[in-house]
Amino acid sequence: MQYRQLDSERTINYAEVHRLTEAGVSANAIAGLLDMSSRQVQRIRGVNAAPTRFYDFDTSEERCKTLERVVDGAIEMACHVRDEDPQLVYRYLDLLDRAALQELTMVLLAGFPMDRTKEDLYGWVMV
């Protein structure tokens, strides 16, 4: 759930406002339930609710082959960044659209070795 700190004692729960709105609860009722003004509720209603599902979990053979190509490309880009010319990778990434960048990011994060320390992973760039 998304929270925004208002002050040290109160937080606004955006997801709860959107959930209650979708359930048909009025702004005044939501304001009373969540201890905020109806004007705040109206402002929050104007903010798009976060999607309930961010990523398409297509497990078809074609999709798996596509993601395998993304992994192969990511490995090649990692080699360029570390051993050759990072500017080539930068220019390539600059040409990708948002969906392709998000897909690449998701693939890279899924393969991230969580059992390694920051120094193990990034010692080659740390001073």
How does this structure look, described?
The chain has seven helices and two strands; from the N terminus they run E-E-H-H-H-H-H-H-H. With 127 residues, it is mainly alpha-helical. The chain folds into two domains: 3-46, no CATH class; 61-122, no CATH class. The chain has a two-stranded antiparallel ribbon. A hairpin with a 5-residue loop joins strand 1 and strand 2 (11-13). Helix 2 (27-34) crosses helix 3 (38-46) and helix 4 crosses helix 6.
Helix-strand blueprint:
Blueprint: E1 3-5, E2 11-13, H1 14-22, H2 27-34, H3 38-46, H4 61-83, H5 86-95, H6 98-110, H7 118-122
How many domains would you count in the coordinates? 2
Strand order of the largest sheet: 1-2
Quaternary: single chain
Largest sheet, if any?
A: 2 strands, antiparallel
Keywords:
two-stranded antiparallel ribbon, single chain, 127 residues, 2 domains, mainly alpha, disordered N terminus
Brief characterization of the structure:
By secondary structure, this protein is mainly alpha-helical. The protein is built from seven helices and two strands, in the order ββααααααα. It folds into two domains: 44 residues, no CATH class; 62 residues, no CATH class.
